[in-house]
Structures are given as C-alpha cells and as structure tokens.
C-alpha cells in the first residue's frame, strides 16, 4: 500500500512516541541509535511498523 506524505508522517510520529514511551523495538540492527524518530523511520522503511491506516473511499455521498 502506498501511503500519502501525511499518512507516512502520522505513522512514523506515532511509532516514535510508542518507542519513546518504552515500546519494544522491532529491528535488530539499531545498535547505537537512541533517537526514537530515527528508529521509527528505519522500522517504517523495513515495513515492520504495526500500525494500519483505514481510508474512507468516496465518502462524499
């Protein structure tokens, strides 16, 4: 699924908040990285972020 830039920003930001609050990190290759934003971006690029997006299509009617 291709995400818009707004969805991408929301997913990465929400995941960074989770990591900052103590959620487990889902990647093994983040040794030495302490910035939650950097970790969440790496997780997003790897496709392992456990967040989904629900879209309402043609909800104008």
Written overview of the protein:
The chain is an all-alpha fold and 61 residues long. The chain has one domain (1-61): RNA polymerase subunit, RPB6/omega (Eukaryotic RPB6 RNA polymerase subunit). The protein is built from two helices and no strands. Helix 1 packs across helix 2 (36-46). It is elongated.
Condensed summary:
This protein has 61 residues and is mostly helical. It contains two helices and no strands. The chain has one domain (1-61): Eukaryotic RPB6 RNA polymerase subunit.
| Helix content estimate | 40-55%
Total discrete domains: 1
| Total beta strands | 0
What CATH architecture label applies?
Alpha-Beta Complex
Instruction: Give the CA-CA distance, first to last residue.
Output: 25 Å
Structural class: mainly alpha
**What would the CATH topology be?**
Eukaryotic RPB6 RNA polymerase subunit
Order of helices and strands: HH
| Main sheet characteristics | none
What is the count of DSSP helices, taking H or I runs of 4+ residues? 2
Task: Please state the CA-atom Rg, rounded to the nearest Å.
Answer: 13 Å
Bulk shape: elongated
Instruction: Pick out the low-confidence regions.
Output: none
Oligomer: single chain
Mean pLDDT: 92
What's the CATH first level?
Alpha Beta
The portion of residues forming beta strands comes to under 5%
CATH superfamily: RNA polymerase subunit, RPB6/omega
């Amino acid at each position: 699924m291709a995400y818009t830039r707004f969805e991408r920003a929301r997913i990465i930001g929400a995941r960074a908040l989770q990591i900052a609050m103590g959620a487990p990190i889902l990647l093994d290759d983040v040794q030495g990285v302490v910035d939650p934003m950097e970790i969440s971006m790496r997780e997003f690029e790897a496709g392992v972020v456990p967040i989904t997006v629900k879209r309402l299509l043609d909800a104008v009617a």
